[in-house]
Fold these 2 entries.
Entry 1:
Amino acid sequence: MTWPPRQRASATPRRRPLDGRGVLTLLLGGAFAWSLATVPWGPDLVHPGGERAIAQLLAAALRPELSPPFLALALEASWRTAAYAVAGMTVAVAIGLPLGVVASGALARGALSRLGAVAATRGLLALLRAIHELVWAWLFVAALGLSPLAAILALGLPYAGVLGRIYAGLLGDVPEAPLRALRASGASEWQVLLYGRLPQALPDLLSYTFYRFECAIRSAAILSFVGLGGLGYQMQLALDDLRYGELWTLLACLVALVVAVDLWSGEVRRRLVA
Amino acid sequence: MMFVLDAVSKAYGSTVALHPLSLAVARGETLAVVGPSGAGKTTLLHLLGGVTQPSAGAVWIAGRPLASLPPGRELARLVGVMHQQLDLVPHLAAVHNVLAGRLGEWRLLRSLVSLVAPREIERALAALERVGIRDKLYERTARLSGGEQQRVALARLLVQDPAAIVADEPVASLDPARAEDLLQLLTGIARDDGKTLVASLHSIQLARRYFARIVGLRRGRLAFDLPAAAVSQAHVDRLYDLDERADDLATAAAR
C-alpha cells in the first residue's frame, strides 16, 4: 500500500457534453417550446367577459360577505369540512399505521417472510393511493349514497395508502444500533418496535401526519363538491350565483382551518422535543 | 468457565481482525483487554458478547456453543454488552431505557403497558440508585450528559442481570476522574454480584489498578495474557512499540 494514498477523488471529473440528463433536458425544453407554438395567441386567448369577471372577483376580496346568517352558514360548513378531515384521518391512521409497520419489514425475522410481507403490503398501499380521493368518492357515493360515511372512506383510504408508505420508510430508517442493543437484551421484534423504532421515528411520524391532516382539510373541501356538504359545496353555490363576497369569506375559513392545524402541529412538536 | 475461545479467528472480507486465538475466562474473573487502536479489541469483545460469530474456531459461553445462542433471552441472561456508543434510545425517558433490560423476560402486553405506566419500577430505581443517578428516572435520555447516559446504559445491564458483562471502551469518552469513578462502579458491581467482567481499555494504568488479569492484543494477535501484577513496563512498551506503530498507521490508513 502506498502512503499517502493516491488522491483520485480530488481530480475534477470531466463532464461529457451530452449525457442522459442533458438529452432529457433538451427533450423537455423542446416539448415546452413546441407547446407554446400550439397556443392560439390573440384576442381570443382570454374569453371576452373574463377580464371583467376577474376584476369583480378581486374587488369582492375587499368586501367579503359578513352578514350573521352567512357567517353562521360558513361556520357550519367549516365545522363539517373539519369533521370530515378528522374522521378521514382517523381512518387513514388506523389503516395506514399497521400496514406501514408490516410494510417496513420490521416484524419479519426471516428474509423470505419479510420479502413476502413487504411486497404484499406495499402493493396494497400502492393500490389505495393510486386511486384519487375524488374517484374513491364517486365509487362510495355510488355504493353508499350521499352519506358522510362515503366521504370519510373516500378520504381515509387513499390517505391510508400515503401514510402507510411514508410510515414504512420512517420506521425502516431509524438508527439500527439501539435496536441491536434491545435485541441483545432479549427483546422480540414487537418489543423492538415499541421501544426502539416507534420512539425514534415518533417526531417524524407526527410531523408527517399533521402535514397530511392539512392536506386532508383541503381534500375534504374538494370532496364536498361531490355533494357531501361543507366548504367546497358552499363555494360552488357562491360561484354559481356569482356571489364573490361569499366566496372570499369561505376561502378565509379554509385558510383559517389550515393555519389552525399548522399551529397545533407546531405546539405538539415543541412539546415532544422539549 | 464463563468464556472459552478455542482457536478463534475473525476476518472481515480479506481483512483479518483476529488471528487464531485461544482464551479462557473463569466465572467472576475481571479481565481487561488492552492494545493500540485496530488491535482487534472490539472484535474480541464482540465474539465474547455473542454479537458476531467467529470465522473459524469455537466460542463457548457458560459451556454452551455460541452458534446455539442466537440474540435473545437465553444469551441475554448469560452476557450483557455495553457498546462504546451506548446504543440507548435517546427519545425515551431514562426509566424506559433501563427497563428495556427486562424486555427478554416480559411479555408484549407488559412491555406496552410499561411505556405508559412503568412496571417493576423498583428495579429501575434500585439500578439507577446504584449507579448514582436515581433522580434522573423520568428525564428524557437525550437530555442527560454523556456520563449520565453511560450510567443509564449500565443500569440497563444491571436490570438485565446477565452472568457476565462485556464493556467496549467504557471510559473512552470520559475525563480521568470520571473514568476512575465508572471503573470503580463497574468492578464493584462485578465483585459484589459475582459477575464476570471483560472490558477493553486504552490505559494500562487503569487496567492494572482495577482488573485482576490483563490481555494484550497487537495487530490481531495475543501479545500477553498475565495477572495484572505481572504486567511490566517492558510488556507495555512492546505492545505499543513505536517502530511497528508506524506499520499500524500504514495498515489503518490503507483500510
Entry 2:
Amino acid sequence: MEHITLLLGIVIVTALVFDFTNGFHDTANAMATTISTGALRPKTAVAMSAVLNLVGAFLSVEVAKTISGGIINEEGIRTEVIFAALVGAILWNLLTWLLGLPSSSSHALFGGLIGAAVMSAGWSSVNGGTVVTKVLIPAIAAPLVAGLAATLATRLTYRIGSRADDKATAPGYRAGQIASAGLVSLAHGTNDAQKTMGVITLALVTGGVLAPGSNPPMWVIVSAGVAIALGTYLGGWRIIRTMGKGLTDLAPPQGFAAQTSAATVILASSHLGFSLSTTQSCSGAVMGAGLGRKGGAVRWSTATRMFVAWGLTLPAAGLIGAAAEFLTKQGTWGVVLTGALLVVGSAVIWGLSRRQPVTHDNVNDVDDSDDRDDNGGAGADTAGTLTAAIEDDLKATIPAQPGASPEPAKTASV
Amino acid sequence: MKIDWAALGSVFGVSLVVTVALVGLFTLGIVGLSKRERATEQGGSATLAVSGAYACFALCAAAVGYGIYLIVA
C-alpha cells in the first residue's frame, strides 16, 4: 500500500461508496418479497441479506479481471476515467433510489464507464456489439424469462396448494421464500462485491501499485465485502417498497414463486454463459408472480416508470460520467471539484429523501385507499411529488453538473 | 457482434423447467405436511403423504445445495 497517491485514494474511496450504494440499491432484489409478504421482519431480512452478501464476497476466488467485461477497451485506461465512471454510477444509483425505482447497479457502472471512456478517448474505446450482447439483450430477456417462470410457478403452486388451507401452508411458503432469498443474497455478494474488487484492483494496477494481472490484496476484499454488506443492511427501503408492494400485491405463495424464479434465473444464467441482470430478473419475477394469481394485477404505471429508468440508466450514468471525466481531465482541481460535486449531489439527494422518509418501520405501509392505478403505490407516489422538487433543487444547487439535471426532467414527463 | 442464442435459449429453458419443478415439488411437500395435521386431528395417520413430503423437501434442499455449489465454484 506504499505509493497510493491522492487520486488513487479518492478512487478507492469512491469505489467503496459505489459498492455501498450497490448494496442498498439491490437489497430489494433479495428481500423485497420476503419483507412485503411478512416472511421476515424488515430488519431481520436486511440483516440476513447483509451477512450473506459479506459471506458471498469471500466465497468466490475468481475475481473479475475486467470491470466492464469487454464493453470498453480497458487497456491504458487512466485512473481519472475510473473515478469519473464511478461518479456517474453513484449519482444515478442515488437518484433512482430517491425515486424508488429498481435499476441495475451494474448497468449504471457500465454507463459511467462508457461515458467517461468516450469523453477520454473517443467512441472507438467502446465496443458497441458488446453493449448489445451484455446489456441490451439481457435487459430485455431477464424480465421475460423470470416473469414467465414466475407466472407458471405461481399458477402451479396455487393449483396444487388449493387443496390445503392457508394456515397450514404459510410456514412452508415462508421457509421456501427465505431459502430462495438467501441464495439471491449470496449470489449478489459474490457477483457485485467482486465487481468493486475488480474496480479497485484495476485502479491499483493503473496507478502502478500492483503488477498487472495480480489478484486483489486482502484489504481490498475485506473492505469491498464490508461496504456492500453495510449498504445492504442500511436497506434501500424506497426500492423495497416499490418492488414488494408497488408493482403488485404479493401473497406468500407468489412471493415464494417469484423469489425462486429469480434465484433460478440468476444462477442458471450466470452458469450457462449468458448473464442476466439481477435487478431485471427480480422485477420481472415479481410482476410475473403478480400476473400468475387469479385476480392478480400488475400496476403498469409503476412498471412503466421502472422500464423507463432501465432504459435511461446507461445513457444517464454515461452523461454524468462523461461530464465528470470532462472535469477530471482539467487536472487536479477538476478531480477535487468532481469529488466535491459528488458529495454535494449525494447530500442533496439524501436531503430530498428526508422529506418523505421510507424506513423499515413504514416500508410496508401503502395507503390502500389511494387510487393505486394512478399512484402505483407509495413508492411511485413519492416519485411523482419529488420529481419537480428534485429538478428545482438540482438546478439550483449543482448547475455545473450538466449530466445531472436532464434526467429528472425526463422522468417527470413519463 | 455475435449473439449466443443457444446459451440464451438454454437459460430460458433451464430456468423455466427448474423454477416450475422446484415450486411444484415444494408445494407438494407443503400440502403433504398439511395432510398430517388434518390426519392427526381426525385421529388417523398420513405416513405416505408425510414421507412423500419429506422426499420433496429433500429434493428442494438438494437443489439449494447445488445452487450454493454453483455460487462457490
